[in-house]
């Protein structure tokens, strides 16, 4: 387990709930990029696959937690982007 990987995941782990909360409060997606979120999601999926097949450790739970918050933020993006 790399302490640096865990640190990076912890920092992202704090950022995604804040981003989702701000989107929910503002009910606006101004300045957000869905493409960027998709790229981050792809990176998390790659990290999860790596942890599952090559180096399973507790950091996989940070990947899964971050992925869930990212998906929440992405769902809010879709909701407010296409809200009528």
In a few lines, what is going on in this structure?
This protein has 84 residues and is mainly alpha-helical. Helices cover 80% and strands 0% of the residues.
Q: What is the CATH class designation?
A: Mainly Alpha
Determine the fraction of residues in helical runs and give it as a percent range: over 70%
CATH topology: Monooxygenase
Sheet with most strands: none
Estimate what percentage of residues fall within beta strands.
under 5%
Order of helices and strands: HHH
Annotation keywords:
84 residues, Monooxygenase, 0% strand
Task: Describe it.
With 84 residues, the protein is an all-alpha fold. It has a single domain, classed as Up-down Bundle (Monooxygenase), CATH 1.20.1280. Helices cover 80% and strands 0% of the residues. It has 3 helices and no strands. Helix 2 packs antiparallel against helix 3 (59-81). It is elongated and about 45 Å long. The model has no long low-confidence stretch (mean pLDDT 92).
Give the topology.
Elements: H1 3-26, H2 34-53, H3 59-81
